[in-house]
Task: inverse folding
């Protein structure tokens, strides 16, 4: 702003000497026509009070809005350039908040908010059930249900059923185990994504006895066949069967949340051989136009009695028994199946980053308040000379908006790098990873929060210095006068807000640390998992026929592996603890009575070989292990977990000799051993009641034939586990028995235990980052307020020292101010933390959301930080020379 006086005749040209106020530049001269003799001309930021406008080349009449805005932007950039330290700190602070929020939002948008990548995804539903009679909330699809729903539904446009599989591909380079999906013909039609080349499966492909076919996924097509179109019509050997390739899906096609599938195979189920039950498949459907979820659930409820009438119960089970399960419909949006239970976690992380952004905004607002106070006299003079509040507010908000946009642009760069780090740390099983990225919605989000942040922190100096109090600056005297309490109020309030928000984030971080510590102290049920190597093998019927011959090949492989140097033991199991595979069914105890049709609780079934418990380090609590002779002779014996033994018979030793079975046509099986409980479903879940069966069984679950397992997991205990040389020796041992057996799912046992805690550790890291950022920003904010308070109270400090005040007392005065502000923030943060715990409580394990130790530790830590942040700048008060302070006035 420039102010000039002139005495000249009308239309005379004269030199006008002008003085620039602090924010307008330096001394200069103005040449121009003066409107009247003795008049005073006021130029406000290059714009005269009359209808004149000033650009870089002088004064011109009028002025377009765009040129006005451009001129204002140039002046804003010049002002920011003249204060590089202020500009750098402000932009870095804002960029950190915007970048962190944008990175987490990109994950939230890709996983939760973005529609599924299928045509009309809002019409896609997952077809599930519930069984309250078994306390089973998520019941999958059974073939008997599928056939009835497919043919007699009134609300589904199309319907499909699928299950996960793993197949052996031979005849093309080295044998390999490939993840696959067995699907009915309606699955791809329901999803609605046409193949890149070829065709979908038809009802003919899905008919038992039809020629075997397969559809390749794009990634496997590229990896195995180099993306050659000549693959169409070619046959490949899948599990020893020739299958003709009839289609290839496009690159953009992903099957729900499955990322590593190689090919799709038709299920070819036979209705004539289907019984009730076997809920081991998953169903999906597309609703007819106009159909609702409520109507679909009512339609499934209508068809459930038809299912019961159309199929027979499996051998050994009565229809009345199945009715007692009270199976009911649970049709819900397919997106729920894809996203799973990570929604709450992502919203918690999003909320934490929004709090960080708010703290950053509070910090920037404090910086702008200090900057605006430095310009207060300028703003007061402009208001006195006729500048409207709207004009002054607009210029202040423009500067804030420019800071917000530049900070947002820098934040996008931080978000891009942060997103790479975030995805690298993401827990296994995080769905829709391919949909996460910096796309248009994310860019719009970054722009929106940047503008909102600019308005948020810009409004505070506007309300304080562009409002009704704008004219009081001249009356308050010079710049060295002590400021009143009112002038400190806004900055103090911002520090209190920062402390409150930091307290909430630190409490969340502290509770997650306690949760992680509680998880690490859980005994998983096995010992030294880093010394146990696991992998899977499937022996195909075309390779080895006969169930007993399969077991002999499996035993031979185990003996070859046990002979490898450094191996102490080896065993087999149908499922590795915490690998996500489970098989549950009810069991009956011979010495327990059951009412007619009563269903006992579901138990987890595991098939094991002799030596498995020793290899895993699962303790034998009572009794003994299985023997190979019992396995080959199909002796009706079993082993149960300690939890099941205590539930039925009180003490583990009392379970020995007792007998259990699954179906009423099964042989009773004697319990020969009780082993320790294993957290099969993860560290954060209670250990289930397990039943361990021999691999070979007869008259089991109503089936009179001999049953075995062709797809087994192998466990090897050795200090060499995980090394490449050891894995090479293991593969050679397997191939010395059968060269067509490719090991798959090769992991050490601790991989599964880490994965079970991955979500907790991911949440811990993210909340820890948010808490650290909040603490740092809050510390900087408090330091700035105390430092500024010291600088503005120099005269008061000088007077106090002159009157005999000790310098330590002055330091304590400012430290008390910082602690008082932090204390008020902690009190407000307590209330906010109690409210936030509603969201976080589901992520905790063995820790109360109101854990007093955590709240006390956070309070002490925040108070200690506030003490340090207040003490350092308050020491400046000790260096004040009272004579110099008074002379400066």
Result:
């Amino acid at each position: 702003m420039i102010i000039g006086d002139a005495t000249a005749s009308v239309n005379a040209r004269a030199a006008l000497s002008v003085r620039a106020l602090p924010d307008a530049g330096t001394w200069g001269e103005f040449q121009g026509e003066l409107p009247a003799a003795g008049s005073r001309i006021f130029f406000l930021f290059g714009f005269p009070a009359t209808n004149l406008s000033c650009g870089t080349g002088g004064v011109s009449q009028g002025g377009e809005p765009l040129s006005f805005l451009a001129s204002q932007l140039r002046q804003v950039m010049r002002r920011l350039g003249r204060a590089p330290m202020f500009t750098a700190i402000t932009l870095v602070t804002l960029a950190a908040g915007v970048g962190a929020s944008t990175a987490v939002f990109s994950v939230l948008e890709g996983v939760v908010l973005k529609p599924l990548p299928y045509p009309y995804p809002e019409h896609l539903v997952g077809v599930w059930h519930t069984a309250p009679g078994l306390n089973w909330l998520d019941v999958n699809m059974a073939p008997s249900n599928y056939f009835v729903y497919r043919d007699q539904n009134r609300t589904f446009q199309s319907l499909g059923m699928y299950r996960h599989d793993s197949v052996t591909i031979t005849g093309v380079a080295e044998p390999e185990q490939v993840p696959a999906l067995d699907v009915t013909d309606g699955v791809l039609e329901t999803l609605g994504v046409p193949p890149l080349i070829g065709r979908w499966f038809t009802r003919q492909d899905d008919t038992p006895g039809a020629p075997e076919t397969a559809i390749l996924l794009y990634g496997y097509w590229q990896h195995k066949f180099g993306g050659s179109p000549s693959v169409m019509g070619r046959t490949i050997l899948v599990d020893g069967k020739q299958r003709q390739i009839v289609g290839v899906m496009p690159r953009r096609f992903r099957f729900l949340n499955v990322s590593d599938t190689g090919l799709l195979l038709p299920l070819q189920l036979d209705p004539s051989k289907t019984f009730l039950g076997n809920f081991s498949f998953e169903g999906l459907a597309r609703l007819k136009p106009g159909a609702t979820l409520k109507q679909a659930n009512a339609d499934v409820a209508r068809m459930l009695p038809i299912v019961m009438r159309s199929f027979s119960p499996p051998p050994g089970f009565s229809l009345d028994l199945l009715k007692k399960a009270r199976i009911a419909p649970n049709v819900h949006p397919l997106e729920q199946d894809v996203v799973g239970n990570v929604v709450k976690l992502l919203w918690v992380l999003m909320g934490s980053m929004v709090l960080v952004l708010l703290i950053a905004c509070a910090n920037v607002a404090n910086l702008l308040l200090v900057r605006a106070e430095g310009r207060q006299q300028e703003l007061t003079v402009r208001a006195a000379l006729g500048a409207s509040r709207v004009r002054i507010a607009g210029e202040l908000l423009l500067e804030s908006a420019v800071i917000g946009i530049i900070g947002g642009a820098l934040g996008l760069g931080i978000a891009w790098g942060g997103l790479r780090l975030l995805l690298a740390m993401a827990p296994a099983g995080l769905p829709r990873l391919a949909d996460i990225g910096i796309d248009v919605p994310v860019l719009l989000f970054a722009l929106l929060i940047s503008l909102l942040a600019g308005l948020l922190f810009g409004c505070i100096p506007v309300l304080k210095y562009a409002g009704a109090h704008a004219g009081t600056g001249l009356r308050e005297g010079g710049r060295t006068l002590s400021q009143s309490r009112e002038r400190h109020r806004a900055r103090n309030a911002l520090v209190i807000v920062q402390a409150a928000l930091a307290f909430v984030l630190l409490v969340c971080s502290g509770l997650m640390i306690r949760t992680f510590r509680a998880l690490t102290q859980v005994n998983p049920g096995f010992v030294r998992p880093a010394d146990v190597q696991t992998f899977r093998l499937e022996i195909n019927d075309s390779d080895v026929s006969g169930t007993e011959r399969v077991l002999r090949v499996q035993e031979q492989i185990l003996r070859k592996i046990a002979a490898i140097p450094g191996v102490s033991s080896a065993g087999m199991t149908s499922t590795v603890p915490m690998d996500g595979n489970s098989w549950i069914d009810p069991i009956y105890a011979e010495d327990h009575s059951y009412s007619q049709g009563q269903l006992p609780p579901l138990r987890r079934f595991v098939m094991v070989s002799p030596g498995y418990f020793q290899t895993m380090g699962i303790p034998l609590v009572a009794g003994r292990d299985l023997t190979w002779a019992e396995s080959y002779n199909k002796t009706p014996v079993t082993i149960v977990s300690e939890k099941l033994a205590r539930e039925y018979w009180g003490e583990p030793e009392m379970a020995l000799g007792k007998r259990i079975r699954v179906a009423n046509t099964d042989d009773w099986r004697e319990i020969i051993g009780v082993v320790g409980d294993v957290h099969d479903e993860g560290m954060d879940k209670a250990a289930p009641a397990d039943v361990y069966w021999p691999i070979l069984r007869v008259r089991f679950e109503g089936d009179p034939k001999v049953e075995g397992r062709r797809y087994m997991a192998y466990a090897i205990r050795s200090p060499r586990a995980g090394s490449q040389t050891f894995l090479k020796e293991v593969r050679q041992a397997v191939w010395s028995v059968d060269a067509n057996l490719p090991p798959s799912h090769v992991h050490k046992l601790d991989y599964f235990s880490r994965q079970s805690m991955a979500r907790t550790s991911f949440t811990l890291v993210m909340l820890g980052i948010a808490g650290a950022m909040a603490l740092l920003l809050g510390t900087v904010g408090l330091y700035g307020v105390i430092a500024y308070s010291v600088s503005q109270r120099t005269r008061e400090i000088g007077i106090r020292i002159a009157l005999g005040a000790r310098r330590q007392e002055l330091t304590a005065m400012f430290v008390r101010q910082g602690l008082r502000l932090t204390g008020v923030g902690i009190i407000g943060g307590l209330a906010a933390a109690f409210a936030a715990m509603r969201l976080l409580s589901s992520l905790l394990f063995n820790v109360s959301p109101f854990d007093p130790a955590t709240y006390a530790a956070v309070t002490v830590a925040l108070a200690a930080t506030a003490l340090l942040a207040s003490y350092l700048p308050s020491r400046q008060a000790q260096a004040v020379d009272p004579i110099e302070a008074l002379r400066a006035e």
Observations:
- The longest helix spans residues 389-425.
- The CA atoms of residues 272 and 403 lie 72 Å apart.
- The chain has 25 helices and 32 strands.
- The radius of gyration is 37 Å.
